[in-house]
TrEMBL record:
It comes from Paenibacillus paeoniae. Pfam families: Acetyltransf_3 (PF13302). This is N-acetyltransferase. The keyword Ligase does not apply. Residues 9-165 form the N-acetyltransferase domain.
Length: 184
């Protein structure tokens, strides 16, 4: 058994050959809006360069970006851990699934793999997810995973001509373990 393999996905390093799928995903403005922001268009060469740099960079301390692939090897998105504070045992994460693969359980499986690694291998005590107030799917995902809404930062995001709140969700290691014990 590999700790990076779940029931439907595995997490792996991003490789230079992934550029094409990332470039295709860059064309989906709604997806970009929900997971980060809409940036200026990037050329194929620019996407290749970003993918090559990301692949070569690897982890920085405990911060990392990983590819999410189905067990058959098809790339379906990416997940990252960032703002890792090992002294206080807190990290943040973000996940993006390519639109063709939404609502298939891949995000949940990938997030659980990342949480398990940070809680069981790196001794972190808390995971934090920042969700845009208009992203109902992501809000429901955090709730299903056992995260608690801990705060609302008002009027933090501007998109589609309107201001939106940022929601702060948190999950403690003890809550993660209790939730997993009750479902096993």
């Amino acid at each position: 058994m590999n700790c990076w393999t779940g029931t439907s996905v595995r997490l792996r390093a991003i490789v230079a050959e992934d550029w094409h799928q990332f470039h295709k995903n860059d064309q989906d403005t709604d997806s970009a809006r929900t997971s980060d922001a809409i940036y200026f268009p990037r050329s194929e060469a620019g996407t290749r360069q970003w993918t090559e740099e990301t692949a070569a960079k690897g982890a920085t301390g405990d911060s990392m970006m990983l590819a999410i692939e189905k067990l058959d090897g098809e790339l379906v998105g990416c997940i990252n851990a960032h703002s890792c504070d090992s002294r206080n045992g807190i990290f943040k994460y973000g996940v993006a699934i390519f639109r063709d693969h939404w609502r298939m359980g891949y995000a949940s499986d990938a997030i659980n793999l990342l949480l398990r690694y940070f809680f069981k291998e790196l001794r972190y005590e808390k995971a934090v997810a920042i969700v845009y107030g208009f992203n109902e799917s992501s809000i429901r995902l955090q709730e299903r995973l056992g995260f608690t809404l801990e705060g609302r930062l008002r009027s933090m995001i501007f998109t589609l001509g309107k201001r939106h709140d940022e929601l702060v969700f948190g999950l403690l290691k003890s809550e993660f373990e209790a939730e997993r014990m009750s479902t096993s």
